Fold each of these.
Amino acid sequence: MSIPVTLIAGDGIGPSIADATVRILAAAGADIEWDRQVAGMAGIARWNDPIPDATLDSIKRTRLALKGPLETPVGEGFRSINVALRTTFDLYANVRPAYTIIPGRFDKVDIVLVRENTEGLYIGVEHYVRIGDDPKAAAESVAIITRLGSERIVRYAFEYALKNHRKKVTLVHKANILKFSQGLFLDVGRMVAREYEGRIQFEERIIDAMAMHLVMRPEQFDVVVTTNLFGDILSDEISGLVGGLGLAPGGNIGTTAAIFEAVHGTAPDIAGKNIANPGALVLAACMMLDHIGDGERATRVRSALEGTLRDGATLTRDLGGTASTDEFTNAVIARLA
């Protein structure tokens, strides 16, 4: 029986890499019924809405989506369409794996970053402060950390580690300075960690020290869990350790829905030129296959993609080659045959 999945191709290079990903999954024999929807600028063009009701209704029905990069229209009332989607479906866990495929400066990176996705500074509680005659003399943003939000994201990290045979969870914080908000996150993390003692190693790192250690000895880290802003920053740093965002997938996961995505931007300068690298979205699709229990097929697709990358004969321009999107896609499909 086909599995229904909402497909949001996205803006810029999104349609090109989405089509490539659909072709690769079809070649792997994935039995998926794609429900094609739009958002971002494509949503504005079709429905005059960056997040059309039809798209939201589709995700509510399928509870599963694969999404290309989206452009948030200026002045449409959204800080970010991606943030709006995460909030709408309470996708509290942002999961960003990064591992070495093409050997470079670091050859043994294999890190999964688990980021709290709905709280912290990105919750958007902010306002201007009047001083004297200036109504915008200062601005204040409030980071909201809850016990519930902290517990469920730390527990998710530990359960992920158990399920995927990982050995260690590193909790990243700034409780030495932000003693209430980050202190709560750390205290809850320690409480949860005690439940997994003897099964999963646990350590704590202060955010600034963590950023340094990641570029010195990244191979020492396994699963990393942290709050929203810190996770946003560290996830891009970790992607940089393995070659950049071109091979960086992400999953936004909640209790009732999950959206998997390429985390890079829309790259409008190369849109429509058939030269974009679909690797990040293909890897996101593999995360989606794992999520629905089709791990064997996910492994086959990953192996085909990794083999193509390591072979080096058919690489897109961002990876140092000259291949088109279609040529790269065909090379991956050939390895699936």
Amino acid sequence: MSKKYTQEKMSEILGVSLRQYVRIDNEEDLPRRDILKKLILALDLSDQELGQYIREISNKIA
């Protein structure tokens, strides 16, 4: 799932502040639905990778 984007570049792609992206990247916060859609496209995630990501981050936040 690595595209070698910097956090700054990903925040630009997703249209969020660097601070917000860092919280998402560090799995401290769930992305909103619109941000999640952009994240899926930017990283070209498969359904399996997406499901795994959602399960992992949900478990950490819960």
